[in-house]
Amino acid sequence: MRKLLYLLPLGLLLxxxxxxxxQTARHLDSLPVRGFCIAAPRxxxxxxxxxxxxxxxxxRHINTxxxxxxxNYQYERHPELRDSVALSRQEVEKLVKACRAHSIRIIPQxxxxxxxxWAGTVHNLLRVYPAFDETPHVKMPAKYEWPNADGLYCxxxxxxxxxxxxxxxxxxxxxxxxxxxxxxxxxMDEVFYIGDDKCPRCGGRDKAELFAGEVWALRNHLAQKxxxxxxxxxxxxxxxxxxxxxxxxxxxxxxxxxxxxPKDIVICDWHYERPDKTPVYFAMKGLRVITCPWRKxxxxxxxxxxxxxxxxxxxxxxxxxxxxxxxTVWSPVEAFLDEYYGRTKSGAESQSACFKAVFK
Length: 360
Known about the structure:
Domain Glycoside hydrolase family 20 catalytic: 84-293
Protein name: beta-N-acetylhexosaminidase
Low-confidence stretches: 1-26
CATH class: Alpha Beta
Catalytic activity: Hydrolysis of terminal non-reducing N-acetyl-D-hexosamine residues in N-acetyl-beta-D-hexosaminides
Organism: Chitinophaga japonensis
Signal peptide: 1-22
CATH topology: TIM Barrel
């Protein structure tokens, strides 16, 4: 009898541990989106990345992979826009096959509207089609510095140029077809150049209306083939009123577009320094929202707890709008894998540590 009494607390402890583990697993699996966002691998890193999908993403029940492809694909409709080294259709199919085997949805991304340059380099779209440039009078510096007199962070294309969407829609269609995608991520973050006064088409126009108009154009094109649009959420937040500033929110009045954009898009809400409660704001506007951390585990864990609480405390109508979590990675695949597997040193605050803290 005493032996049974001795074993009873141990049994309760084990059951408690199992219950705790089941609770954690249930909570993670209860999130409709358990995502991972990273640049698409270059061909040389493809096999290592597929191994990472199979060994790390799948066991953690990641079900969504946003791949920032941009021009890292051998486009057939616009071969002039390919990177010099880019994924072939066969290599993409290999990647898609690996994800399908583990029920992981791939969503390709091509940065649209903003992010058409970086530092002193103009990216492929504006390099090949300079007429699409919203600010052709802003010349790329020999040595890039921030801040600068031109307010140059990244260039944008002009959303009202009569030829730009013909090219953009070709890219969107081809990349979605190659990845068998039912959704497309258009980026659209950190758009500083929009409605420039010197643009003959956009000058004097409402920046919020211009931004919303581009969202609608992309959404409507995708909807024709049953695809949905995903974007980053920062341009829809008021940087001045919230104190979030010009990076995680807008200081050029695009935030008013939140009341103009279609309600069936998906917002990827990134906050890297604080667990801001903006998912509630997006959801109350009728938009599906995903919280996106980066490199601070404590911030990410709070964001995860917030997402659980938002869903648990939401009305029947609001709960489906709180979609889940997506880890973002802003280094190339090779560098991330080196960090993840300890081949390079990383501190307590790192992309890999953040990912492991959320998706245990």
